[in-house]
Amino acid sequence: MTKTNEIVPIQIHTQPDQKQNQKVASAKLAARIKRKDGSEIHLYNGISSYILAAVLRELR
User: Fold this and answer.
1) What is the pTM of this model?
2) Using an 8 Å Cβ cutoff, are 58 and 39 in contact?
3) Are 30 and 47 in contact (CB under 8 A)?
4) In the predicted model, what is the mean pLDDT of residues 51-55?
5) Cα–Cα distance between 2 and 59 in angstroms, integer?
6) What are phi and psi of 11, to 5 degrees?
7) Would you give the DSSP letter of residue 40?
8) pLDDT mean over 39-57
9) Are the C-beta atoms of 40 and 34 separated by less than 8 Å?
10) % the chain with pLDDT above 70
11) Residues 6+ apart with CB under 8 A from 55
């Protein structure tokens, strides 16, 4: 018995990732920290508490 390989045509449709776009649009600025050197830190609602703690620890 020999097995024959079949070639099946496929077509890939690209669609914009709507979920990702909606998530970015729903993020609201919670705090803006201005530093003495002129740089700014923007914190958005929904930030992980671990990331927030690390950022605030580095500001000391």
Assistant:
1) 0.52
2) no
3) yes
4) 90
5) 69
6) -135, 130
7) E
8) 90
9) yes
10) 73
11) 41, 43
- Residue 27 CA to residue 43 CA, distance in Å, equals 10
**Residues recorded for the chain:** 60
Helices (H) then strands (E): counts for the chain: 2, 2
Paired with 34 in beta bridges are 40
For tokens 């600025």, name the residue.
Answer: 29
Contact (Cβ atoms closer than 8 angstroms) between residue 28 and residue 42: no
H helices within the chain, ranges in order? 18-26, 49-59
Matching residue, tokens 């690390």: 54
Q: What is the token pair recorded at 23?
A: 């998530």
Structure tokens at 41: 């830190």
Q: pLDDT tens digits, residue range 30-46?
A: 999 998 888 888 999 88
Whether the CA torsion 45, 50, 35, 38 is positive or negative: it is negative
